[in-house]
Amino acid sequence: MKPAPFDYCRPSTVTEALEALNSTESSRVLAGGQSLIPAMNFRLTDVSLLVDIGNVAGLDAVACDPGGVTVGAAATQTQVLDHDGAASVVGGLRAALRHVGHLQIRNRGTVCGSLAHCDPLAELPAVALALEAELVLTSVAGERRVPAHDFFVADMTTCIEPGEIVSAVAFKRQDPSERSALLEVSNGGNVFPVGGVALRWASAGGTCAMARIAAFGVGSVAQRLVDAEDALVGTDLGPEAIAASVAAARNAVNPTGDMHADADYRRHLVGVLIERGLLEGEGP
Amino acid sequence: MIPSIDPHIRSGTRYVGRSVPRREDRGPLTGGSRYIADVRIAGMLEVVFVRSTEAHARIASVDTSQARALDGVEAVFTASDLAGVQSFPDHIDSIGPVRQRPLATDRVRYVGAPYAAVVATDRYVAEDAAALVAAGTEYEPLPTVADIQQALAPGAPKLYDDWDDNRSVDVVFHRPEVDRAFEEADHTFTATYLSQRQTGLPIETRGVAADPDGGMLTVWTSTQSPHMVRTTIASMLGVPEPRVRVIHPVIGGGFGVKTHIYPEEIVVPWIARRLGRPARWIEDRMESLLASVHARDQRHDVEVAYDGDGTIRAVRCTSILDLGSGEIFYPGTAPVFATNSCITGAYDLSTVQTRAVAVVTNKTPSGAYRGFGIPESTLVMERVIDQVARLTGTDRAELRRRMLLRPGQTPYVMHSGGRIDSGSHTESFERALEMAEPALRRARARHGGDPDVRVGVGYANFVEPTSPSYFRTTGHWGGGDAATVRVDPDGSVRVAIGLTAFGQGTETAAAQLAAAALGVSPSDVTVVLGDTERTPYGLGSWGSRGAMMVTGSVLLASERLMAKARTIAAHMLEAAETDVMLTDGAFHVAGSSQPSVDWAQVATAAWIRKVDLPDGMEEGLETSGYYHPEHLEHQPDDTGRFNSAASWSNGAHIGIVSVRISTGEVTIEDYIVVHDCGTLINPALVEGQIHGGVAQGIAGAMYEHFRYDSDTAYPRFASFMDYLVPTCAEVPSISVDHFESPAPEQPLGVKGCGEGGTVGPPAVVAGAVSDALSEWGVDLTECPVTPVSVRAAIRSAETAGAGASS
């Protein structure tokens, strides 16, 4: 479990990082390294140059403003969890981060790194979908902003172009009336879940005004469940509405079976967790 | 023989029976311990093994030229280089010979089998070279055997061409009384129970370092049995045994995995000798999952004869163990015999007929793991009892009460010839029920309002054979162990034991015993172990034998030492030997504390001041004792029966679970253990063993499972992403209470407690979850119990129910 030989650099500016990234074919960005380093140690990933962005000034910022929270590429999950401002602005993010890995992983792992890695079992892509986050992609050509629902393409595949890095992710401020929840089931405490959902909704005068539902672990990539959302909006969130949403969710997902869970279980689970989440969700 | 110093200690010790603080903890807790990977020798080379990526194949060719050409590579060896090394011995005639070579020659039988070794200046280069060897290897794939069913199928591919089929052993002893019971019983049922493939998973993986310097071959290895490793290295490499020294540094867990003697323990010393340079290999985690023994992969086909009132009249059980490739020394067959021997647990049921089968498959060799077949047998028996209770409408606890061994029923001879010498089988269960009652009430109150949650309770009552014979397991070694006790001129005591220690607290216990026997403080006692040059020949630690062996051997050696010390003291005090007493470390004449001589004076006379010794007495104050337990038998009689363990501990486990119906998630709300391992030397050590054991038992009940692809026999695990290991977050709080039923025939009445914790949880969890889901009629017959398996059970019960009602 030692990696094959590779080159390594630790630039101090984004420009230098991009230059290094463009200098060779199989270069990779190193942020927290919680997925990349094991893959290299297993010799599953061919890397000729590691571009460590841990020393790039400003990239580890967690910035709060009235519009929301922007998390830099090198900011760790623990940094966001411990950031009081971020928590009060985007409560759904904090609720979700508690489920990511365990303490040691969150101390190293970054929010942007998990999004860029796009593991179908990871929580954060689904959270980004439910919170309608925007990814900031930077290249020598400049910056572009991509909504989460355009960013995640397939298993371990995003719309990042060669020469681009995820330099930040921006989460919009959650309205104080919003509620959010993240629920998942795993076969063991510290491992990837077999499936889960990220929820966010708001009610006004007893009527559901907005709902966002994203599922993970039940398909090749995190997925917004628009039909399940639509089944809730305009309702009183009563048993019938929830049942309709659950049915729509189970209909929309296309899980596969693996050694950790069969497809039927995963499909069933999505519905159970949506129902439970709507009953248990917490405010921002 | 039994040391006669025993009654003296029973009557007057200040140390035995007390939770004397452990002396082993400072190193591990402060990071100061020196593990195998911390062994540094100047000029040491790194070895990496190249392992098969095929489950079953002929090796057509291995091209090592590219690897050899790599900068930093010193050598690459394949099987032909080791032609002069003996094969691992096949000591047991009755099991299929595997003629294991240290490196696979022309055929590999599991993914992970070592067939080449790369030696380089550092591990990174060695792994680069190993990748080149792997790329230069041509295989001719052979058809694979992935599980028990495939192994036993007619016309199945054979792993060993000269065997009749894939059975390594198949032993049954016909019991006519069982046939009669089946004829007479009201009802019968059949069932199949499964235990899944797991491993002991020490936190510290294995590792070997070897130094050929100065005509002595010194080998550091993370083993539970250094003397056995020395004997095996000497015989396989053809080196005189006194020229081989085996040292185990601090060990980060063994759990049975490190009782076996592995190819790396032969090849690394061979490399060091061949190159004339020190060399080492450290197993990484991926290798550890593939190349350290697996265990517990058993199927049990059971027939039960019972009456309408719930009385179980007889059981027939065919236990089939998946051995993997079988290429491990000592062989991995013994646990299936232990399963069969102990299948009746703590219950009075002697009409049992068992058949033991072990089959080879294209998987990692299986072998020892803490519990050694008994978690498997306990799962079978407890599920059988629950099923009979259900079929006859009998209360589950009440049925167990009726079946348990009662006070006065010991010694009790089991169907297997095991002789349960003593115990508190009924009392332990009653006490556990008492402890469980408030816990059950709490759990019901906590979840009573949630329509999605059900609460259930599960039971296990088992016996734990301790200090077993190693002869049926290894075909070579027996069942005793040794201690050497010395008092140095300054009066300090040195105790050297053949046992090993990796967390149990054996050193603390040895110091307590020597202190008690010699009337000194434990802090005056230095304990030495884990080095064949400094300790007497011993078999090491496994089989819950440490407590009994350290007691017997230390007391025996101390008794002999005391006899000589008393003679010397009497001479110095000019008194009759029979009048001399030992109080607080000083010898004096009975009735008067002065004059006195202390241990330093006696030892100085013995070692240095010949003028103070009685005429004609030999110098020195060092004695040894080799303790072999009374009534321990090594071979079965012609009906297959024998008492394979020196004593029998017992335990009652009760677990209370909550089950979330919608997701199948199981939470252990409370876990209760009442345990009886005879006289407690140190209650805190026993508690520690139980807590750790239960944690590992829960790992087997709910999490850990090595899976293989059934078409290719390819492992579906490579890391802890796929092999799920519980942490402190998943292990519940455990309540423990003790009974002490002394082993009547063993020194101080000590039995042993190393494995009991692991034995109960699979049966308890499967039983408790089935109980929680009783309204669906769920009867779980295999582990691990996972959210998915629970949902599947509910779903299939609902489907069956719907089918029945329509």
Descriptors for this entry?
heterodimer; A: 284 residues; alpha+beta; four-stranded antiparallel beta sheet; 14 strands; 33% helix; globular; B: 806 residues; seven-stranded mixed beta sheet; 28 strands; 22% strand
Short structural summary:
The complex is a heterodimer of chains A (284) and B (806). Helices cover 33% and strands 26% of the residues of chain A. With 284 residues, chain A is α+β, with helices and mostly antiparallel strands.
Structure description:
The complex is a heterodimer of chains A (284) and B (806). Chain A is 33% helix and 26% strand. Chain A contains twelve helices and 14 strands. In chain A, a hairpin with a 2-residue loop joins β4 and β5. In chain B, the strands form seven sheets. A seven-stranded mixed sheet of chain B has the order 3-5-1-12-9-10-11, sandwiched between helices. In chain B, strands 7-15-14-13-8 form a five-stranded mixed sheet, sandwiched between helices. With 806 residues, chain B is α+β, with helices and mostly antiparallel strands. In chain B, α10 (334-341) runs parallel beside α11 (374-392), α11 packs parallel to α20 (761-772) and α16 (546-573) crosses α17. In chain B, β20, α15 (506-518) and β21 form a beta-alpha-beta unit. The model of chain B has no long low-confidence stretch (mean pLDDT 96). Chains A and B meet through α12 of A and α4 and α21 of B.
